[in-house]
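2024-03-11 09:14:02 INFO worker-7 job=invfold-0412 stage=load source=structure_tokens
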């Protein structure tokens, strides 16, 4: 995941936003940043293990709906879980709010 000023990057968890159909035909995926820095920013959606349909989080985290990236699928190291559809809809609503 690149830093916003592009000075560096490091491995970070992300929430995949793009559809499976898109991911199958593209070398890239569309993602939102996930961070353990719990923030009260207006576009942060908190997630805990209760919000996971599959897998677990090491610590309570949040999805930054205002930190959207396109990444090469080659950069993906592993899948660690799946958030509930409720969380995904909350993130989408936050993104829509940014674009309206």
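2024-03-11 09:14:09 INFO worker-7 stage=emit residues=100
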């Amino acid at each position: 995941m690149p830093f916003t000023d592009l000075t560096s990057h490091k491995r970070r968890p992300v929430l995949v936003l793009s559809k499976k159909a898109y991911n199958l035909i593209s070398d890239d995926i569309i993602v939102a940043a996930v961070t353990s820095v719990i923030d009260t920013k207006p576009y942060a959606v908190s997630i805990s293990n209760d919000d996971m349909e599959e897998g677990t989080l090491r610590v309570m985290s949040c999805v930054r709906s205002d930190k959207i990236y396109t990444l090469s699928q080659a950069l993906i190291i592993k899948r660690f879980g799946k958030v509930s559809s409720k969380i995904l809809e909350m993130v989408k609503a936050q993104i829509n709010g940014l674009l309206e």
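2024-03-11 09:14:09 INFO worker-7 stage=report msg="Residues 39 and 62 are 8 Å apart (CA to CA)."
2024-03-11 09:14:10 INFO worker-7 job finished
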